[in-house]
Description:
Oligomer: single chain
Structural class: alpha+beta
Number of helices: 6
CATH superfamily of the largest domain: endopeptidase domain like (from Nostoc punctiforme)
CATH architecture of the largest domain: Alpha-Beta Complex
Amino acid sequence: xxxxxxxxxxxxxxxxxxxxxxxxxxxxxxxxxxxxxxxxxxxxxxxxxxxxxxxxxxxxxxxxxxxxxxxxxxxxxxxxxxxxxxxxxxxxxxxxxxxxxxxxxxxxxxxxxxxxxxxxxxxxxxxxxxxxxxxxxxxxxxxxxxxxxxxxxxxxxxxxxxxxxxxxxxxxxxxxxxxxxxxxxxxxxx
Length: 190
């Protein structure tokens, strides 16, 4: 009986780590968030695969969780110095920064240059940009040469030559004049 109880606790911890949205309510129930009907309760005695499929079909919850995780991971790099061509934890450039964050959170590697990252994922209109989307800029000519990660409320994070990894406002005159577009990369995970 003790082993069975420990397995249920371990199972709930695994579910919590994988999804981030499960709560162990009591010995026989787990509460799973549902975007359509409030909270759903799954029985611990019921095969988890029955609720697992239903829970992961809630694409919105999974996407929101990934977007929050992207933001948290990106913020961990604040203050990292800039180095053109740099790819290490000691110094990096803008495309290495976005490449590393997406590799850490989503498990895939973006192309190495901002101009190449500009063609990944799905176009996003400026008024529809969401946390975790990549935003692109043309600083030195016609080719896209800068990329950052949108954090919401007109804020984005990027590795800049003038300040390393830092936060900036998308509506500042500098960034507004150089804005080239935005991409949703989470569609690559579907």
